[in-house]
Amino acid sequence: MSDTIYSNLKQLGGDTVQPRSPEEAELERVQNPQADVAYNVRFTAPEFTSLCPMTGQPDFAHLVIDYVPGQWLVESKSLKLYLTSFRNHGAFHEDCTISIARRLVGFLEPAWLRIGGYWYPRGGIPIDVFWQTGEMPEGVWIPDQGVPPYRGRG
Amino acid sequence: MSDTIYSNLKQLGGDTVQPRSPEEAELERVQNPQADVAYNVRFTAPEFTSLCPMTGQPDFAHLVIDYVPGQWLVESKSLKLYLTSFRNHGAFHEDCTISIARRLVGFLEPAWLRIGGYWYPRGGIPIDVFWQTGEMPEGVWIPDQGVPPYRGRG
Amino acid sequence: MSDTIYSNLKQLGGDTVQPRSPEEAELERVQNPQADVAYNVRFTAPEFTSLCPMTGQPDFAHLVIDYVPGQWLVESKSLKLYLTSFRNHGAFHEDCTISIARRLVGFLEPAWLRIGGYWYPRGGIPIDVFWQTGEMPEGVWIPDQGVPPYRGRG
Amino acid sequence: MSDTIYSNLKQLGGDTVQPRSPEEAELERVQNPQADVAYNVRFTAPEFTSLCPMTGQPDFAHLVIDYVPGQWLVESKSLKLYLTSFRNHGAFHEDCTISIARRLVGFLEPAWLRIGGYWYPRGGIPIDVFWQTGEMPEGVWIPDQGVPPYRGRG
Amino acid sequence: MSDTIYSNLKQLGGDTVQPRSPEEAELERVQNPQADVAYNVRFTAPEFTSLCPMTGQPDFAHLVIDYVPGQWLVESKSLKLYLTSFRNHGAFHEDCTISIARRLVGFLEPAWLRIGGYWYPRGGIPIDVFWQTGEMPEGVWIPDQGVPPYRGRG
Amino acid sequence: MSDTIYSNLKQLGGDTVQPRSPEEAELERVQNPQADVAYNVRFTAPEFTSLCPMTGQPDFAHLVIDYVPGQWLVESKSLKLYLTSFRNHGAFHEDCTISIARRLVGFLEPAWLRIGGYWYPRGGIPIDVFWQTGEMPEGVWIPDQGVPPYRGRG
Amino acid sequence: MSDTIYSNLKQLGGDTVQPRSPEEAELERVQNPQADVAYNVRFTAPEFTSLCPMTGQPDFAHLVIDYVPGQWLVESKSLKLYLTSFRNHGAFHEDCTISIARRLVGFLEPAWLRIGGYWYPRGGIPIDVFWQTGEMPEGVWIPDQGVPPYRGRG
Amino acid sequence: MSDTIYSNLKQLGGDTVQPRSPEEAELERVQNPQADVAYNVRFTAPEFTSLCPMTGQPDFAHLVIDYVPGQWLVESKSLKLYLTSFRNHGAFHEDCTISIARRLVGFLEPAWLRIGGYWYPRGGIPIDVFWQTGEMPEGVWIPDQGVPPYRGRG
Amino acid sequence: MSDTIYSNLKQLGGDTVQPRSPEEAELERVQNPQADVAYNVRFTAPEFTSLCPMTGQPDFAHLVIDYVPGQWLVESKSLKLYLTSFRNHGAFHEDCTISIARRLVGFLEPAWLRIGGYWYPRGGIPIDVFWQTGEMPEGVWIPDQGVPPYRGRG
Amino acid sequence: MSDTIYSNLKQLGGDTVQPRSPEEAELERVQNPQADVAYNVRFTAPEFTSLCPMTGQPDFAHLVIDYVPGQWLVESKSLKLYLTSFRNHGAFHEDCTISIARRLVGFLEPAWLRIGGYWYPRGGIPIDVFWQTGEMPEGVWIPDQGVPPYRGRG
Ligand SMILES: [Ca+2]
Ligand SMILES: [Ca+2]
Ligand SMILES: [Ca+2]
Ligand SMILES: [Ca+2]
Ligand SMILES: [Ca+2]
Ligand SMILES: [Ca+2]
Ligand SMILES: [Ca+2]
Ligand SMILES: [Ca+2]
Ligand SMILES: [Ca+2]
Ligand SMILES: [Ca+2]
Ligand SMILES: [Ca+2]
Ligand SMILES: [Ca+2]
Ligand SMILES: [Ca+2]
Ligand SMILES: [Ca+2]
Ligand SMILES: [Ca+2]
Ligand SMILES: [Ca+2]
């Protein structure tokens, strides 16, 4: 099986080279086959990890990305490799979350995009970061992300 | 027992032939017996499966469809058979979810319709697809679909 | 103990005769003792059952009814008996849910009413039916019904 | 430790006399120390019980009260004693819930107040009662009460 | 690794002196590296404790703070030390919750801020306190805090 | 498709006649195709209803049946019709639950069987009934039924 | 409908007089119709309340009682009235829970009985009391009571 | 990277050919690198589907397999392909579940193995199938599978 | 109301002096009024806090204590004050948890006792500590503590 | 504050050097201050990540370790650094989980130890690995780890 809109893809189905940094990672995109309607695509990435820029110790986050595609869809394997490329990258929680979203915005030119970054606790206090490109577009359905709150123990 | 608005139905209560493709599947409809009020009907289909168009491997999704009927209600057994007909059909997550919704829109001419496609994770990252035909109709009650977020493990 | 607004009630506290059909069931109402404020009353009825009009087999539903009373409150025991009277009645999910709501609307003349009918799965796919009489009244508090989504197994 | 705004309190920290009826219960109030901002205070009272006015049998409810204080805060121990005073009082669910809220409204003159009364099931059907004094005030944060729906068994 | 916007920080990565009171605690801030977009930062602090000003006995709360930064981000370790400094401070629930929020507002000059204080029950009745600086800013994404309601036992 | 061990079945795949009482209902059985190993089969029946023998009013239960088959498996459609046949049958909770189990024991001659009957509350107090034919057989895996406890409200 | 084993019952189906104390409450029993097998009956009573013997203030508990009947079953309405009779009775948590169980043991002479008393928190710390008459009987199925642990807030 | 114990693997990392039936599927195994200790490996497969042998309609199950390896570990990709090969295979729930387990037992010669098959409801009643090869081995840790019970709706 | 077995109590109902250290805290006990049966008493204390002996920073824990009383019951207010007295005490998690249990063992001479200490995470990894005085006593009912596992985020 | 049993620790409270491999990581231990009683210590590590030895792509796991200390306690910061050192290490799920446990067994010489490795899904199927050093020691309390099962979506 194949699909002509995917004929340019380099990483899907071929040998994968793990990018060593976000800069090295190459996002790929395909034409949106349903570009005449406005819909929302959600990626849930519970396997995100980066490094603390001050101490070099690993940080972990559960990321959820929603976007309303314009002409392009992100190819999901290239997105996974891009997220994996933060493994040895140092960035603060706020900065890291927002910069992932902004790279996607620049590359996909979506009608709308948001990111929720739910970071594992440090010092007993988790940080969550929430950003969207602006008002939700009228008439498009964007459900709550619904991630449960942190409770400590008990 | 019988009901005249159902007298044209072919698949309900008779022998069922499993359609081999979405094209072959025949949706059926009955007149909406409460067509003078605007209400919402929700179908939850946790047993959806199709094939990946690139690799031929099976994909799975949990689908939830909401619609506000106009003159027609979809007959639920024909809907089930239609969904089952994707079993050997290759389609990407975004395309597959949206095309199911659009076929229902064309066939039922509902006042409003939306679909949530909650796909099982591949590469550790599930994709959800959300579409509706436009703004929710004024004064009609459409609750959240409330599907819990994917959490990985732990 | 007694209460004059309840002095006309026939079924509450007396011998109960189980009505054999919705037509035979007699709803009762009392004057709303707080009719000068607009508030919402919710009934949750997880024990609803009726028959399939095509096959005669039992169907089950979890019903939730919200209403903003006008001059009348429904007496809860008569409501229970009315709901129980569907036990041997044949009706499709959509029709049955809406007709319960409409009988209450006609009898109580509420400021506003809605019903959520959460039907047990048939063919692996549950149907939910949602109706309200129109826009939620301004400034009245009507919380989500919050019924969890169907998940299949696992 | 002490606090001058609390110097008039009679029941807090002293001997407590359990009031025998709602009429006998004495609510107390203190000046709102943050009266220049509009915020919401929520009390959750899962230990409410009263009597059925028809049969004299006990009823139970889980109550949640939200209010945006004006010049006064309710003193929490006096609120507890007031709620406890319904122990031998006969009142229907709708009437009882609304009258608690209205007494607080009269005594505290809040900017806004609402009550959710979640009553334990009788005849298999619980009743919930929801009231608020009017539109939520603009720009004040009033979260959902989030009480889970009744499910019967299973 | 280091980062120039953090070069003024005194408490992060160095020896920590536990402040003995909120007055003694020193909040620190860094420049917002993404100040050209409006996003929300959430801190969840399930380890908050203070003293009752009337009896001197400990109180406990689960705090959640959301803010939309302007030019400044709060440094998270200094926030933790500030919250910890209430350990021997006497304050009522309403007063304590609001004053934490107001100190952050004065120090960070955020575009918007809110706090939810979920206090452990006393006398069987927990108090929750909710405040925000005003209407949510248009187009910024601020999810529900989603803390589950208190249920008593059972 | 067919299967010779099923060639005697009368109700599966044919026209179904709803039995009017437990006595009239006909259970069917097929040979156990894996009779040389000891395994457990669990049926979960959340749609059970019968009548109260004193008042004639409907009762509801969630039933879970575990059995270790000997030479026979119960045919699931005939089990469903048998359970449905209690719809107009009067029986107390304890008696009804145990008699269902004993009929299955007599008909299937299983190596072991148990039933959990989780009845909806009456008078605010649900009754659960648990029975098994004796000690769990050694080395056979019988997981907990795991039905959550009844909580009232809140 | 009637049933000869129930012909002696005084409170079920007749007028109910609420007993004013545990001593005044009259438990009733019927012959166990399935006395030749050993099974477990569970009552869940989330509406229990008594008074603190030191302060006279109300206490609340969620009670769960399991018993393996011998010759007698407790009639459930008389059990409800017995539990309700503690409404104005002073007793400590440990004493109250155990004495309920022992009265049932004396009256029913069951093969085995246990009680779990899950008391609402006082001073932030709930007390649970667990008692059984001795080892679980061999081969009888007694599932966990499964009441969730107390969590405070958050 | 590579690993000599994996040098014989044919399907992992190479091109995958989807087997068309369980007979055609080829399981693969590797030497157990920790064969001197007894431990448990659990596979959770929520994406299982087969066909009903009577009607040809799809069935769905959530499968959980535990085994204590002897000399061999199953290679996980070959297990996935084996499970996928049931997609067009007709088998009853009991038979299908047990036969998967027995093929693994024959191929892996494990110290112990069990399977839990949690099938989606048909006719409102799900079937679960549980089998193990015999008593749990002494001193080996095998936790509960903990799959939540089916609840219907509400 | 009073009770002679409580006539020696000093802290209950009188003025409370908060002890400044575990050594200063005075536990109190009363005679076990049901000393002729063996039952379990559980205290759940979600408000425990102490200090880290190395850094002086606060630690938090959710504690659950089960004990089977002999001749003595611990008076619950004195237990609360004892637990509160760790507020300014430095102790490691393992040491602190075990020493609380051992003091109770020495003071109460129970038939059996256990403690579960569920500590809030530090460095992303919570520690739980579990101790009991020995084998559970035969025939006494000691349910699981059932505290949910820590999940990080997502 | 200090504690003589901790005087040899090198990594706690000092500068931390992140070890680059498991071999390089140095575990540290302190004398067990409660070595005369047998208790269980549980570490929950939801932030574990390693690499696939075949493809080099990251794997994620949620690890739970229980051990009954002998003469030694593991110092928790050194444990965290050891677990973090797998970040760039290639190992299969089964091998990796067991080898972590065995290194702890060799270093701590505990009375008993177990590990649960709950790996994130690959190919839609998560693997869990469970090992313990042998039978649970008599009379020591080791609760279930209670990690919820993987559910896919919906
Ligand atoms: Ca907590
Ligand atoms: Ca919503
Ligand atoms: Ca809402
Ligand atoms: Ca599933
Ligand atoms: Ca149910
Ligand atoms: Ca929301
Ligand atoms: Ca309760
Ligand atoms: Ca179990
Ligand atoms: Ca409650
Ligand atoms: Ca808590
Ligand atoms: Ca277990
Ligand atoms: Ca239900
Ligand atoms: Ca258990
Ligand atoms: Ca996680
Ligand atoms: Ca257990
Ligand atoms: Ca699902």
From TrEMBL, chains A, B, C, D, E, F, G, H, I, J:
The answer to keyword Oxidoreductase applying to this record is: yes
Q: Name the active site residues.
A: 52, 59
**Record's Gene Ontology CC terms?**
cytoplasm
Q: Which family does it belong to?
A: Belongs to the GTP cyclohydrolase I family. QueF type 1 subfamily.
Q: What class of enzyme is it?
A: oxidoreductase
Top-rank taxon: Bacteria
Q: Which NCBIfam families does the UniProt record give? A: QueF-II
Its pathway is: tRNA modification; tRNA-queuosine biosynthesis
Name of the protein described by the UniProt record? NADPH-dependent 7-cyano-7-deazaguanine reductase
Q: Which SUPFAM superfamilies match?
A: Tetrahydrobiopterin biosynthesis enzymes-like
Q: Does the keyword Cytoplasm apply?
A: yes
Q: For this protein, what is the EC number?
A: 1.7.1.13
Name the keywords, alphabetized. Answer: Cytoplasm, NADP, Oxidoreductase, Queuosine biosynthesis
- Name its GO BP terms in alphabetical order: tRNA queuosine(34) biosynthetic process
